[in-house]
Design brief:
Strand content: over 45%
Oligomer: single chain
Distance between the termini: 40 Å
Radius of gyration: 14 Å
Number of strands: 11
Number of helices: 0
């Protein structure tokens, strides 16, 4: 099992920045990707950014150039630096871990990000 603890959400004005953190514990050996998804009211959950063990990254087109994902492998922690935030970035952000040995995903409890115009 893997436990995920998220932090860093909040309320910010448009154009501002926030940094999300997600620390994994438990069976962290075997994790092959860590990332962030988000879900806005009335919308489906969508991938925001993901980083693989080798350092490769994926980003949603809507956040490219504004968000940066990074990872501290020693601490099994993933970060999402969000700059130039827009009201449409408002959502609950969920940390996600893909476990290559247990063959399943794990999810954090979610952290609210609200961007006011």
């Amino acid at each position: 099992q893997v436990q995920l603890v998220e932090s860093g959400g909040g309320l910010v004005q448009a154009g501002g920045s926030l940094r999300l953190s997600c620390a994994a514990s438990g069976s962290v050996f075997g994790i092959n990707a860590m990332g962030w998804y988000r879900q806005a009211p009335g919308k489906q959950r969508e991938l925001v950014a993901r980083i693989f063990n080798g350092g490769e990254t994926n980003y949603a087109d809507s956040v490219k150039g504004r968000f940066t994902i990074s990872r501290d492998n020693a601490k099994s922690t993933v970060f999402l630096q969000m700059n130039s935030l827009k009201p449409e970035d408002t959502a609950v952000y969920y940390c996600n871990v893909r476990h290559g040995i247990l063959k399943r995903d794990y999810w954090g409890q979610g952290t609210q990000v609200t961007v006011s115009s």
